[in-house]
Batch of 3 targets.
Target 1
Amino acid sequence: MTSNPMAGAVRRGRQYVPLLVTSVLLVLMFSVGSVQYDGFLSGQVLLNLLIDNAFLLVVAVGMTFVVLTGGIDLSVGAVVALSTMLSAWLVERHGWPPLLVIPLVLVVGTVAGFVMGWVIHSFEIQPFIVTLAGMFLARGLCYTISIDSISITDPTYTAFAQTRIPLPGDLFVSPSVLVAVGVVAVAFVVLHHTRLGRNVYALGGSEQSALLMGLPVARTKIAVYAVSGFCSSLGGVLLTFYMLSGYGLHAVGLELDAIAAVVIGGTLLTGGSGYLLGTVLGVLVLGLIQTLISFQGTLSSWWTRIVIGGLLFVFILLQRLIVGRRKV
Amino acid sequence: MPAQSAQQPVLEVRGIRKEFPGVVALDGVDFRLFPGEVHALMGENGAGKSTLIKVLTGVHPSDGGEVVLDGRPVRIAGPLQAQLAGISTVYQEVNLCPNLSVAENILIGREPRRFGLVHWSELRRRAAESVADLDLDIDVSAPLDSYSTAVQQLVAIVRAVEVSAKVLILDEPTSSLDREEVRQLFAVMRRLRDQGVAILFVSHFLDQVYEICDRMTVLLGGRLEGEYLTGELRQVDLVARMIGGEPSDPGEPSDSARREPAEGADAPPFLRADGLARSGAIEPYDLTIRSGEVVGLAGLLGSGRTEAARLLFGADHSTRGSVRIEGAEVSLRTPRTAISHGIAFCPEDRKTEGLIGELTVRENIVLALQAARGWTRPLSGTRQDEIALHWIRALGIRPGNPEALVRNLSGGNQQKVLLARWLITDPKLLILDEPTRGIDVGAKAEIQKLVADLAGDGMSVLFISAELEEVLRLCHRVGVLRDRRLVAELPNDGSLTPESIMATIASGAQS
């Protein structure tokens, strides 16, 4: 019954352990890289991490919403691919203006997410299977548009792709980074400071309780998949800028990278616990592994996958330990 | 202050009806609740209490009848509508989000906002205020799951009160609270009642009902039996009305149901635990259980009763100590080995640990037997039906339909199904963890009688219960636990009283 402030602080502190571990890991990896390789320790290497992974970051933000409710969205990679395909096709083959195409693509992704969320909620079907269907559907639709890659020569797209936003100290970022940072900022506020965000956490804690507490479970559940759909299509738009092409084989397996980033960022797959900042760190860890391996030079890029696999195991075990201890 | 019948009821239910597949849960029930009263909803398991509450809170839609709130017919479409209409509920199982802070749990859905964003400092301030209002000392910024079930229950009540409800429904709120917490809760209930809140109180503790309630409505088999003023209905008559029997039937046998062990006090021990312990869960304890003996474990919530029992069933690994069964040392590493040594365990939380609600009564009953036979030797359908019907009859499981889904049964009947499942395997030692918790007087008496009969036939029973009267009625010996330590083992030789056990718990005396 009685509580002392110290115990409360310890209790509160435990939730931050995964976040702390990921931060330490990131600093450690960066230090190792700086010691081992010349030219690693530069601001631009860090910024390149963001430039190369901006689209992944945006997709992972959407995934964080879904995973926090205890769900999963396997369709994100396919929705990204469909978004690149749709953009390239409309702009190149039909000559639509990019300012019309981009909002349209965002609407398509959001609606796709909304529909999946609606099916998951209304028919009480596992999100795994519904979004798996969504994944096949979206990936398949890419090929009905074109079997081959469509490259983009539209001046707006090329201009966007080549723009460098200078920062002090000879550093630069791409516009995509600004978009991604904006998405992270908005998502952070939504998750931690709005009713929708708190309902997401409540839903992940206990759906039954959330229902009995009178929270809008249906609306929240559908909303997270719509958010994930929106983030996927926005990620697709950013990838279109990055690749300057639309292709049905873009972003294959991206859903798994996004899930890996979310988990490494300390969000529990069972829902209810995790932070958006963790997802950002998770994406950076994934990017840093790639950078390290490219700096190393002799290892095949598949080592990235091996390291990510190993890390995932470690983090899942870590979560298990933390959650297990909390139950005793 | 008792309700005046001249007043208009704040909540009135007329001819409400609810059916589940195979069960008519409510059959034309009328019910009135006046402002400023504490009203008890009484009835046996399966009488329809839980269903009525779920209809009132919008969890289940009703199949007929009407609900009138403040003189206006209302249609309660869901929990949110119920809350908005002023009906708040605290359920038996805590229905909060364990991952959120206490403050959020109290206010989520109604968070104070500033510029459209959650106003965190205001949220914590208001939550702390509500907690302080009820004289509780809870750190509102700590996550809910860092607190015990009892405190979580109190938080649920704080939440319900915070809604400024006109009607507050408390469904078995006291079943996991200790005496001090019950006292606190009652103080809160009286304060709210005096403010004009109508409180619907459901409890199986008759003494508590008589202490706090002004009026009561009795349900019997899904129908309204009657509405009474608490002061005008003797406990004996109440029990009679609840079970639909004669007033002379006291429901709970006043005399001891306990019998002498079949083979006398010096029968060989069936099970002997020496210094058995699990670090962090239970300190080393010695315990001997003879054939035909009922050994009780008494102690407060969280004193280690369940933890001690789980070691004997292999549900948790012991970190030290040994167990001998019929003289031979055994290693109870898993429930499977325990079962093969003739040990059966009915867990406290029958919903999550024992029964599978989606399966039928028949399937649940044959589950353990089938597991013992192995999947290569399936039981035939007719044999399954025979077994199920036999136990449904033997234990008086209602409804007596083997194909009814277990989740549609009331708590007491679920408990009987769980018992039946283990009894078919003919165990030598039956571990019962709170078998009568949350079930009504009639079913309780039946289960107690069953336990006494089984022990009379030579079965050993380890009986865990928070109700000392029940422990004394059934057990030959009583182990007393306190702070995860077995502090005393008292022979129940007639001189033992609930008070003396409580004194032992309080003092923690070594025997």
Target 2
Amino acid sequence: MSMSLVNSNTYLESLLQGQPRLPASPLAWFNQLRANAVDHAGRLKLPTTRDEEWRFTDLSPLARQSFQPARAAAAQQAADVEHFSVAEAAIRLVFVDGKYMPQLSTPAERLGNRGLIVTNLSSAITANAEAIEPHLGQYARFEDNLFAALNTAFLHDGALVIVPRGAAIDTPVHVLLIATQPEVASHPRCLFIAEAGSEVTILEDYVSLNEAVYVTNAVTEIAVGDNARISHIRVQRDSTEAFHIGNCAVSLAHASRYRSVSVALGARISRYDLNTGLDAEDAECVIDGLALINGRQLADTHSSIDHAKPNCTSRQLHKCIADGSAHAVFNGKIMVRAGAQNTDSAQSSRNLLLNAKARIDTKPQLEIFANDVKCAHGATVGQLDSEELFYLKSRGLSGVTARNLLTYAFGAEIIDRIPIASLKYRLEQTVLEQIKKN
Amino acid sequence: MIHQDSKTILEVSGLQAAVDGVEILKGVDLIVKSGEVHAIMGTNGSGKSTFAKVLAGHSAYQVTGGSVLFEGQNLFDLEPEERARAGVFLAFQYPIEIPGVSNSHFLRLAYNTLQSQRGKDELDPLEFEDFVREKMKLLEMNPNFLDRGVNEGFSGGEKKRNEILQMALLEPRLAILDETDSGLDIDALRIVTNGVNKLANKDNAIILVTHYQRMLNYIEPDYVHVMRGGRIVKTGGKELALDLETRGYDWLGVERRAPASA
């Protein structure tokens, strides 16, 4: 890999220095994809608050850190991982500091699910190149996105899920990405493909074993085939000292459905970009998010829903709860392209400020180029409702209990939408504990 | 029921209160003893709902004069939650909806808070479930109301039943029912008032705040007070309510006293 791209950018330098030289793949298109990304990464600069897309998110603390590639992952005790296991998920892929851990994983082939592929990308890419090539690198554009470019430049491993035509997978797939080492940069790359008429629930779960400083730069691409359905739960509970940059790009085919619940609880600075393309008629997406942060945390969610074709539906509810001197950002773009008639879109951004020092910036953004559309959007930023507090106190609940209960309820509306009961329960407990700490 | 040797629960003297600097209560006097049921009647804007909220401690109302003793203690020394724990209960005219907080969780939290205040055992979720289901029968409530958000999507009548359910769980010394009859159809009114009657005993007291006489057909008051212009202008027995029903409020005339500030 060329080192010329590092030039004056110390941040990139630290990211790239000592990264293991990735072996060339036998797949020419794959090598070309990485080479293109290396090229772009070299031209792009670390965004600053002068960039419109990053105006609230100052990455200078990230630029000041130096990062190394992960050392050989310490053999993780099964017990460390079991803490994060999700009872309902019979299929599980575990990555530690970006490295696949077969001994901790239960890929699909062990379950004898015929045709279903759930394994790590690097082991399966050659055998499944035909299925992968039309999708990998096709949705997560890196021409003007440094982090996606870096992830693609380092493209090596991550989770691969291919659900064959017509199959309904009755167990959630748990992709567990665990950070264990300090000062490590990892670039997990996931690809989820639901072929026509298939159905699957995938949990993408970022966790940490400690409060280390590290950076996760994740990219996930999702292709939902004709009449297929994907339910995608993304949980980010990284170390509160860590940096988390996530890019997810989704493409929906005819009459397909994408449901997403993303929950951000961790990281010192986190940024999640979710770009959903309603790329064929009659597609539908429901995108919900919650950021619950405290202390000096910053959580930035940028979503874009692209109504590229007629007769599509989108629903979005995003909530932020900021306490301490935390800063939450939401930028939700809805684009209705010319010709995307009969679009039905509703977006709501609701935000709760729990401290005078906390800050929330929310920006719904509608760009409509069709004339026969139904688009509703709204944003509110507020504090806890004094009438609700009074009602609870009038029943004997202390002011603190009343506040905690209402804060919890505000966030629970999103968590309740997670279709995995044990995860829902665990997150509710986590939220309750986090609120009580404040 | 009036008893000669009952203890005084509530003693209100010259109570004045304001909202946003506008004085609403202009000197309310009232004594309530254990075992008694008091009805406070009046037109809209007479100050009766303000009186109820001031007793419960709503922060939008500023007490500007007078005093209230609850079982000998200065009520205004207590925060709203302390008043509740001491045994003051307000059934809200418009119970608020709190989506995301399950009704059963809320009811159990409130119940256990008062239990521990009274030095009694708290109930775990399973024990509480059995306990609350028994109480719900009193109000002919469907148990699935436990699984919903607090008052979320409840009809007006269901909200009022949920209020009286809380009264049944918390067993207050003084229950203030603010227009609990409003929005109820005749069946719901019968059920709710029947529940209240079963909860009334010689050791507690009830203040019914109402616009109409009809609730008093079901809950027989010992005293009827008429509030007007922020004061109680007339007090009588239950027959006074019937007079009001036939004659309206106008015959009581204008305020008899000049405003205190004049």
Target 3
Amino acid sequence: MALKTDATGKTWPAYEYEVGREKIREYAQVTGMDDSVYLDRRAAREAGFRDVVAPPMFCVVYSSGALAPALFDPEVEINFAAMVHGGQEFEWGEPVCSGDLITTTATCREIYEKLGKGFYVFESVSTNQDGEEVVRGVWTNIVRGV
Amino acid sequence: MAGLKQGEPIEELRVTPDKYLPHRYAGASGDFNPIHIDPEFARAVGLPGSILHGLYVMALVSKAGIDSAGGDPRSLRRLKVQFRSMSFPEQEIVVSGEVVEADGARAELDLVAAQGDSRVIRNARAELRTGGRD
């Protein structure tokens, strides 16, 4: 069966996420990020941040809302029962702090077949309220038996 | 500053996620895929039981990288991983790594997250800024 690649290049609507201090705390505690800059406003300000700062991997929290419509788009046609998260890459820019408004846009960069598996590669770009890039992600999902 | 030197190992990070960690990570991240939080569902789709979120294990890898550079979250510029194997709650995860390149201003690490003999994440690359802030 030929892999459907029509969605290559497609971009989905931007997703906005407002970053809050308690959500940063929840994420930091679960992932063991125990430095006070993630938990305490005064410590964060002393370290030069506007407010408590999000751990870099908090990017999955504010960008997943942009990725979900891409993954579930019928035009992409991913077989979820056979899908695994194969790879992930993030490149960070400006730090994200409590109070920031982050806008993320997802694009389908590539769909291709290799060794009987389908590779679905999405890119996300997130910017803050000042238009500065905070993170760029490459999300690779692999579907067996395409 | 940590003073990372080419060819040297970084300090290992050891974490044993408890039985309910995937539930808390699901809440924190918003990823409620039942393979992570419902053992019956996981077994029905051929898994041995609930598995950890790959992005949780990547977060542990990010912590090992940040810690090696002295703990400042701004030091982590880039992290690239491949998810190679499943991992499970109630078993220790060991993140280890080596400095591939370092020149005082930046460093590149090669990292592995393992659970027993299983390498959950391998060939992970982290780029760190280790010099002054701009």
